[in-house]
Each structure stands twice: as structure tokens, then as C-alpha cells.
Fold this sequence. Notes:
By secondary structure, the chain is of the alpha/beta class. The chain has helices spanning 11-19, 38-45, 63-73, 86-91, 105-112, 161-167, 187-204; strands at residues 2-5, 24-28, 53-58, 77-80, 96-101, 118-122, 149-152, 172-175, 180-181, 184-185.
Amino acid sequence: MRVKICGLSDETAVHAAVFNGADAIGFVFAESKRKVDPYKVTEIAKHVPKHVKKVGVFVNEPKEKIDEIAQMCKLDIIQLHGDENEEFAKSISFPVIKAFGISSEEDLEKVKAYPAEYVLLDSPKGTYRGGNGTSFDWNLLQSADLPQKVIIAGGLKEDNVQSLLNKVTPYMVDVSSGVETDGKKDLEKIKRFIEKVKMTKEAVR
């Protein structure tokens, strides 16, 4: 099972995520308490091994700005977390993760039609687009048949991620606030979350 640690903003937390087996790391370039400067990410990215995917999170940004930051920071994947339409996603020259807030089966039907290689299913938006620490109803996913690779986010943490994985087997799980203490990335929580996910799926096999 793959794990993405999102909302990273310093080299120490990035190292903890990579060292403990994260498959992807996320940098937020949108307005957020976790927003990070592209120049800082450029420096951090130099120390990230190629097998760990670097994801840039954007909300309703112009394509030109996304391209500029993606090339500067050597991103691997673009995460669109706003109201970007299908045509906009098709115009992006990187693999795309499109985030959707899920509160009903109708929301999942909208997901199916979207032209993205990956979809991130999250709780409905709060103050920010994601990273709000709340879950959606995972039972909705048990009858869903989505064509894209599914990433699940929203309120995940060490003590509830196993409950999710007992219900569904997504392509990846994504955590941000669930590995924080007092709003800062907690290196021990990062370690324990990744270990929990990896051990849970090994046990299922």
C-alpha cells in the first residue's frame, strides 16, 4: 500500500517521510497554513530520491504558474485541489491528481467522468481545500467502481487508517494533519503512520 505525506515544508520532515518509506510527498503551493515557497522546495527536492514522487498541490492557479513551479521544483505530479475543469486538467503536461470532496454517491459519479490518472477522495472542503482533519463516509466507496487510481485522504491517522483499509483497498492513502502535533509535522507520527499502513496491508496478504 502506497503512502503520501502531504503538507511538508521543511527538510527534516521530508527526510522522515522518505526514510520511513513514503511513496509520495506533497508540497502545498496554495493558500494554506502549510503553504511553502517554491524556492525552498527547489532546495529540498535535491535530496529526494527519484522513486519518491514529488507532488505539487495547487488551487485554481493559472496553467502558466503551475508549469513554472513544476519545472522549478522538478515535480512529478500535479494535484488540482480547486474547481479546475476537465479541459484544464487535459492541458497539464504532468500526470494529474484531481481532488474531490465526497459526501454522496452522486459525488462519486462526477469523479468517474474526470480525465485524471489519479483521483483524490477527500472530505468536503472546510476553511481550506483539504488538510482539515475530517473524514468522509468510507462506506460510500464499497460499491464505487472508479476507473482512476484512487487516493484516499481526509482525517486519516494512525488509529483509524486500518479501519479504512479493512473496507477498501485504494491505490494510495494521503495524510497531512494526522501526522502533526500542534500544527507541525511530527516525525514520530510520520514514522508510525507509514509503518501502520505498510503492516496492515502485509497482514491482509
